[in-house]
Amino acid sequence: MTTLLDGIWVLDLASVGPAARASRWLADYGASVVKVGPVPTQSGVQITPPFHAYSAQRGLRRVLLDLKADGGRTAFLDLAARADVVIESFRPGVVGRLGIAYTDVQARNPGIVYCSTSGFGQDGPHAQWAGHDLNYLAVSGFLDCSERGADGRPPLPGATVADSAGGGMHAVIAILAALVRRGATGEGAYLDVSVADGMLSLMALSVDDHLATGAAQGPGAGLLTGRYACYGVYGTSDGGWLTVAAIEPRFWSNLCSLLGLAKWAAHQTDDDVQDQIRAELEAVFRTRPRDEWVAFLAPEDTCVAPVLGIAEVPDDAQYLARGDFAVAKHPEHGSFRQVGATLAGMAAVADDREVRDAEVTDTDEILAWAGLSAGEIAALRADGVAA
Fold first, then answer.
1. Euclidean distance between CA atoms 122 and 128, whole angstroms
2. Which end of the chain is more exposed for a tag (fewer CB within 10 A), N or C?
3. What domains does the chain contain, in order, with CATH numbers?
4. Threshold 0.85, pTM exceeds
């Protein structure tokens, strides 16, 4: 089966974070992704993710180079001369000092799509700030709009939304757009992917509402942040939880009728009675267990769904029917399930895929692909510049 990105070669200089997520998705779309890491003597330079992380490096190849050495830098530029995409996630300015910045690569490969991922972007007063997912959720307004704990503290989110959507998917979208233009014009691109900018784009509904109307934002301020009882989370008799997102009036009316609360159907956005509606919904939902409510309400156009624990997700009937999981085999850890190729257009992942040991590299093969001779590769290895 021909994949959507068949023939596209990607060099990824990151081991974790948004850039690693981006190359993971590009690989699942069929791109040939080469992870470029440090030689063993510099092993502390990058974080080594657990064996199962990033889909256990499914389909990725690996080259180890000392980018601070002339030979390693030249070898990387030789690789970049044949690649389609370079992804890096160093602190702004580092690739310039290493001699592998966009201008260095562009001189060898004018059509390169070069993607720099960073927390706050390549310029601006915060460009050199260190940060992680929680920081970018904070500065974008995401945390401030989330429901608070009893002490008013914004919550720790249950997923790395900034790393994945604000950064990783942001990078993938930008790279694919640049490849489309290159296909038409032959022109490459430099992409400055800021995770904070990506999070701002995700918060545009709230930010734009505030800018246009001056309306306050935050927990309970609007429809999507808990102002109305029709959009919330409710407990059940067995300690489970249900999500209700009956935004459209007809869905809300359906829910009220099925719960014996038809009297509230016409008061969906009546602020004066929201506490009363919410209290009656909570009382009704506490009379039956979660899964009984799901079976009763979900098929009836009520926008009701269960809050699943992570341990429940892999056995969910919908995900199973969609073929969203695969089985991998690790030489040390044995067989384990993992999330497969879940995004639209990705090729299915075969079961029983063999996971390579983390020490295995493809350095010789990839450097030969870049045009280096066997003697040149042996010399780089002898000098400790490649491994």
1. 8
2. N
3. 9-202+360-382 (3.40.50.10540), 223-307 (3.30.1540.10)
4. yes
